[in-house]
Amino acid sequence: MNKISIKSFHLLLGLIAFIASFSLFAHGVDETTKQFLESNKGAAILPFIYIGAKHMVTGYDHLLFLVGVVFFLFRSKDVLLYVSLFTLGHSLTLLYGVFSQISINPYIIDAIIGLSVVYKGFDNLGGFKRIFNFQPNTKIAVTIFGLFHGFGLAAKIQEFNLPNEGLVSNIIAFNIGVEIGQFLALAMVLIVLSFWRKHQSYIKFSTITNTCLMSAGFMLIGLQLTGFIVS
Q1: Does residue 35 form part of some domain?
Q2: Which of 58, 105, 109, 167 is buried deepest, with most CB atoms within 10 A?
Q3: Going by C-beta distance under 8 Å and a sequence separation of 6 or more, which residues neighbour residue 216?
């Protein structure tokens, strides 16, 4: 194996570790953002776009899931299709969850999001075919998990009890920001993957990489369930 291949592998694992490290913050927001959300009155389009983008870029669980989704997608149209299904899912439940005031325990929904990371890593490893002799429909699975990811975003917004004045425009702006953040984060992931795919080590280390994804997912599940138990 040449030095470039090893460097590519280490680069992706470093990216995964960097994303997973955000779990220490457990989807929290910084104090400045918290104060703004709690004190804001009326429509604030640009600030909510920024907050949505920032939330997705630092949304370690969403990003880990997307890494799993695109890991074996080599054609641009396939990446676009699956990311669009994920986007559709989380956009629907983000808007529906906030406007309908659907209350879901944030620890439970984040544990399910962690499960989505485990699922995709297991799926990429061919676990369903090997163990259960069955392959779930990946498009349906990505859409369904997208719905749960959206409820996770909605649960975070609902923590701040935003005033009704300007709520519609603010939430739509937040959702637009989420999509912008997703695009930026996904572009970074695809650049790394595109570089690594030029080398044979990509397939050779695919098992290790997806095992790391599953491990990160189990870690997220454990953190969220622990938070649920002690809260």
Answers
A1: no
A2: 109
A3: 16, 19, 20, 23, 64, 117
**Domain membership of residue 183 as a residue range:** 41-230
Largest CA distance in the chain: 60
Number of domains within the chain: 1
Whether residue 132 lies inside any domain: the answer is yes
Q: Whole-angstrom Cα distance, residue 34 to residue 106?
A: 17
> Is position 135 within any domain?
yes
| Residues contacting 87, CB < 8 A, separation 6+ | 146, 179, 182
Tell me the one-letter amino acid at 38: E
Residue 13 in any domain: the answer is no
DSSP string, 78-120: HHHHHHHHHHHHHHHHHHHHHHTT----HHHHHHHHHHHHHHH
Q: What pTM, to 2 d.p., does this model score?
A: 0.83
Which DSSP symbol is given to 132?
Answer: I
